[in-house]
Amino acid sequence: MTVVPGGTGATPLREAANGLFEQTLFPLVKNAIERRATTAVEGSFGSLPSFIACAGAELTHAGGCVLLVVAHLDEADDAIEELRSLGVEALPFPAIEVLPGETSPSADLTVARLAVVRRLAEGSPPRVIVAPIAALMQSVPEPKRMASLVRDIVPGARISPTELVGWLVEGGYRRVESIESPGEVAVRGGIIDICPPGGTTPIRLDFFGDEVERIFEIDIATQASDRKIDKVELIAVALDAVLGDAKTGAGAQSFAECLPMGTVTVLAEMSEIIEQARAYWDRVRDGRGVYGPPATLSAIANRSVATLELHAFGSAGGAAQRLGARAVPVFSEDAANSAGEVAALAQGRVAVIVCESDGERARMAELLAMHIQVGTVALAIGHLARGFLLDAEQRSFLLVPASEVLHRPPVRRRGRTLAGGR
């Protein structure tokens, strides 16, 4: 087997899968862009949508963007990690969720949504945006309202501490005696401690009158000032602040309107996306700022230079481009036998096993050495949630995560964060 090393340039996974891109994925996406229309693609299995989105990102010009739409929330998490393993800048655009017993959504999710909207408004979109369909059905603030939802604070800025605390509370922060959790703010004389949502480091604003004298990171455990910083970004997180007027929804718009013209859209498993969109639409209680499935998909199509509708099997339209991928079979529970089955599948194919760690790669190399010669299978570090086989005219490919071979739960390096609601 071949161990693909890390290094500069392409990631190990992207380097190992280069033949798949050159022979199959680049021609597929180029054809869709040249047609400037919707292309139905049959035979999309496993994590192949992430690879197609990566191909789109590499083919789009600077300032361009790929929108990868998935049906389920956990699929979005996996796609983000897969794209990053392929060396692509990918940002999540999560759905706002309110858990049972809560009255507002997770602040972390709201911050993540506004971060994407702000990037788009500033004309610096990420290479790929990954979004479950429910997220795209939910409205976002109009551009003119972004200034009231986001504040950049630097030392020397003149701000009324009272006004700033009022803005934070109105924007969804909780005023407490001392900060402990994301979304909290505390005031002691001329000092304001803030624990922003979204995993951002807690900060301390040291005021002299109405002037921000210094900004520090702080340690939650000791409440002591730490490293001095030059700038902090604060974002309002309240549902009403994000969705617009509580009664009319005024001040909000469809997320599709934020996308740059010429976006390449990849719809991962179209039938499942439509089913999940209808299910979400049916259970929406607060319809303010929520768009129906047809309106959402139509608005996205209007901003897209090309749309690739991916289908595992047949497409509703009849005529479709056939990709020829299929699911990887379930392997034996015995690790040695499982490695032998992978070795058999690798015969005559470009085969890549994707490992989450050096230890997992060493284990796979040990098992495969019992069945095949060195160089037959590439072992690359990265993240792959679901494997796939793709038999093309010139060359066939096998990509499989080591977790499927070893029957281990896949590693989640990041999870969907739902904490922070109230």
Write structural notes for this entry:
The protein has 422 residues and is of the alpha/beta class. Helix content is 33%, strand content 24%. It has 14 helices and 23 strands. It has helices at 12-16, 18-35, 48-59, 73-85, 107-121, 133-137, 146-149, 161-170, 239-243, 270-283, 293-303, 335-346, 358-368, 402-406; strands at 2-4, 38-42, 66-70, 90-92, 128-132, 140-141, 150-153, 174-175, 184-188, 191-195, 203-208, 211-218, 225-228, 232-235, 252-253, 263-267, 304-311, 321-322, 325-327, 349-355, 377-381, 388-391, 396-401. The chain has a 7-stranded parallel beta sheet with strand order 4-5-3-16-17-2-18, sandwiched between helices. Strand 12 and strand 13 (225-228) form a beta hairpin. Helix 3 (48-59) crosses helix 4. It is globular. It starts with a strand and ends in a 16-residue tail after the last helix.
Secondary structure class reads: alpha/beta
What fraction, in percent, of the residue positions are helical? 25-40%
Mean pLDDT: 87
β-sheet strand percentage: 15-25%
Number of helices: 14
Taking strands numbered 1, 2, ... along the chain, how are they ordered across the largest sheet? Answer: 4-5-3-16-17-2-18
The count of strands amounts to 23
How far is it from the N-terminal to the C-terminal residue, by CA? Answer: 52 Å
Unreliable stretches, pLDDT < 50, 5 or more residues?
A: 3-9, 99-103, 414-422
Shape: globular
Taking Cα atoms only, what radius of gyration do you get, to the nearest Å?
24 Å
Characterize the biggest β-sheet.
7 strands, parallel
